[in-house]
Specification:
By secondary structure, this protein is α+β, with helices and mostly antiparallel strands. The chain contains 2 helices and 7 strands.
Length: about 150
C-alpha cells in the first residue's frame, strides 16, 4: 500500500478528532440547559488575595444551584449549593483581579459539616439580578424566613 493512498484516511481521522469534542460540548450544554436555566458564570477557585477564576455555567436545578466547568466532559456538577443554606455576603462591581468591569461579583456563603464555605461568582448584571432574586424567593416551606 502506498503512503499517498493513506493521506485521505489520515485527513478524515484528524477531521473527526477535531469535530467530535466540539459536538460533545455543544450537546452537553444543550442537555444542561434542558434540565434547568443556565447562565455563564466564573467561579473563583483560589482565594480573594490570589484569585483563580474558572469559566463555567450555573444551573438552577430545583432547590440547588449547580456549577459546571465550560470545557469539561462530565454531566455532573463540580460544585452544588442548596438554596436554603445559602447566604448573600456581598454584591460588588469588580474593578481588578482579572474580572471584566461589566460583570458583578456575588459572594455567597453556605454552612457545611466542615464549616462555612464561600463562593465568589462573577457574572453579568442581568444574571446577578436573577440569581439574587432566585435566592431571596425561596418558598415558605424551606424555612429560611421563620423567626
Amino acid at each position: 500500500m502506498e503512503w499517498a493512498s493513506l493521506v485521505p484516511i489520515v485527513g478524515l481521522v484528524m477531521l473527526v478528532c477535531a469535530i467530535v469534542p466540539l459536538v460533545w460540548l455543544f450537546l452537553r450544554r444543550r442537555w444542561l440547559a434542558r434540565n434547568g436555566g443556565i447562565f455563564d458564570c466564573e467561579l473563583n477557585l483560589g482565594t480573594i488575595a490570589d484569585p483563580r477564576w474558572v469559566l463555567g455555567v450555573l444551573r438552577y436545578s430545583g432547590e440547588d444551584l449547580e456549577w459546571f466547568r465550560v470545557l469539561a466532559l462530565s454531566f455532573r456538577p463540580e460544585h452544588s449549593l442548596r438554596r436554603s443554606a445559602a447566604r448573600i455576603r456581598a454584591k460588588v462591581q469588580p474593578v481588578v483581579n482579572g474580572v471584566d468591569a461589566n460583570q458583578r461579583l456575588v459572594r455567597l456563603e453556605t454552612e457545611t459539616d466542615a464549616g462555612a464555605v464561600a463562593w465568589d461568582l462573577a457574572m453579568d448584571a442581568d444574571a446577578a439580578t436573577g440569581l439574587l432574586a432566585w435566592l431571596e424567593a425561596a418558598p415558605p416551606s424551606v424555612g429560611r424566613f421563620t423567626s
